[in-house]
Amino acid sequence: MNHAIRIHAHGGPEAMVWEEVPLPTPKPDEVLVRHKAVGLNYIDVYFRTGLYKVPQLPVTLGMEGAGVVEAVGSDVTGLQPGDRVAYAMGLGAYAEARTVKADRLVKLPEAIGFETGAAMMLQGMTAQYLLRRTFPVQAGQTILVHAAAGGVGLILCQWARALGCTVIGTVSTEEKAQLAQENGAEHVLIAGRDNIPARVKEITGGAMLPVVYDSVGRDTFMDSLDCLAPFGTMVSYGNASGPVPPVDIGILAAKGSLFLTRPTLATYTARTEDLEATAADLFAAVQSGAVQIRINQTFALKDAAEAHRALEGRRTTGSSVFIP
Predict the structure, then answer these.
(1) What is the pLDDT of residue 241?
(2) Bridge partner residues of 150 (DSSP)
(3) Homologous superfamily of 3-121+286-323 in CATH?
(4) Boundaries of each Enoyl reductase (ER) domain copy (predicted)?
């Protein structure tokens, strides 16, 4: 027996349905994974609402999970039944079991539990490429992380601090401010209360910043640009407040020959060797203690609608996982 959370039409959390689905048989290049835990991410909301397009409806939501290999396809080498595995960036995770292409799976170290594995793959690998590849931060730099108390935000703050950066974080509440500070943000600003560019200017003595990591989107985009020093990099990697409206790129020149990028984890891990290197760097950071994955909410998979309401209502902090 196999159950999954699927949508038959785009809409609100109520569009998600817990229903029985066939147990898939792996194709030659696939592996059947029995989930022990499944991750919750804001990208799931984008697919549910239709902001991001799905191949077809109905569709099983969810982008990451961790579990045990139950069966392998005829062409699969390097994986066998019983192996502990994890993955990210593959629609279909909101299920008790599902098939995944073998080259999209990584083996989960024994020292990392299934819930941690499910909570860290998408968010942790996102933090890895942002800090290591999109804009490789250097010790001594001051950086800005929006949504610093969220899943990616907490990992970014911890990892950047471990790399020697001073982190300025933005959050929506005083409670979240304390959480961000506990996880590496030296300065925390409250969105809607603080003038973010003015406070950044004060904190940096007028120097401003080499990079801003922005997952909020519409509500913070212009403030983010105003926080950058000349030649600074604006990394827009999410749209929690809605998509950024069309922008006249001349504004990048006016504000100091700025760089703007809209990266995705899918591109940065498209090659198997990049996926494995990204995951290995993340696993090393977690096992060393430099990064701790904060699982602050756990839901039954059948209660996905409740989880989405909490996520969209900004009532979650850190990472959230589903237990099938």
Answers:
(1) 84
(2) 318
(3) Medium-chain alcohol dehydrogenases, catalytic domain (3.90.180.10)
(4) 11-322
> How many alpha carbons lie under 13 Å from residue 116 in its C-beta half-sphere?
16
For the chain, what percent of residues have pLDDT higher than 90? 92
Q: Are strands 16-20 and 30-40 parallel, antiparallel or unpaired?
A: unpaired
On the question of pLDDT at 242 being above 90, the answer is no
Cα R_g (the chain), whole angstroms: 20
- Mean pLDDT, residues 37-45: 94
Calculate the CA 283 to chain-centre distance: 15
Is 1's pLDDT higher than 90?
no
Q: Where are the domains of the chain?
A: 3-121+286-323, 139-262
CATH of 139-262, one of 3.40.50.720, 3.40.50.2300, 3.30.200.210, 3.40.190.10: 3.40.50.720
Q: How many CB atoms lie within 10 A of CB 50?
A: 14
3-state SS of the chain? CCEEEEECCCCCHHHEEEEECCCCCCCCCEEEEEEEEEEECHHHHHHHHCCCCCCCCCEECCCEEEEEEEEECCCCCCCCCCCEEEEECCCCCCECEEEEEHHHCEECCCCCCHHHHHHHHHHHHHHHHHHHHHCCCCCCCEEEECCCCEHHHHHHHHHHHHCCCEEEEEECCHHHHHHHHHCCEEEEEECCCCCHHHHHHHHCCCCCEEEEEECCCCCCHHHHHHCEEEEEEEEECCCCCCCCCCCCCHHHHHCCCCEEECCCHHHHCCCHHHHHHHHHHHHHHHHHCCCCCCEEEEEEHHHHHHHHHHHHCCCCCEEEEEEC
**Helix pair angle (151-162, 114-129), 10° resolution:** 70
- So what's the pLDDT on residue 171? 96
Per residue in 84-122, pLDDT (tens digit) is 999 998 899 999 999 999 999 999 999 999 999 999 999
Q: What is the rounded CA–CA span in Å between residue 31 and residue 20?
A: 20
> Residue holding tokens 């502990």?
84
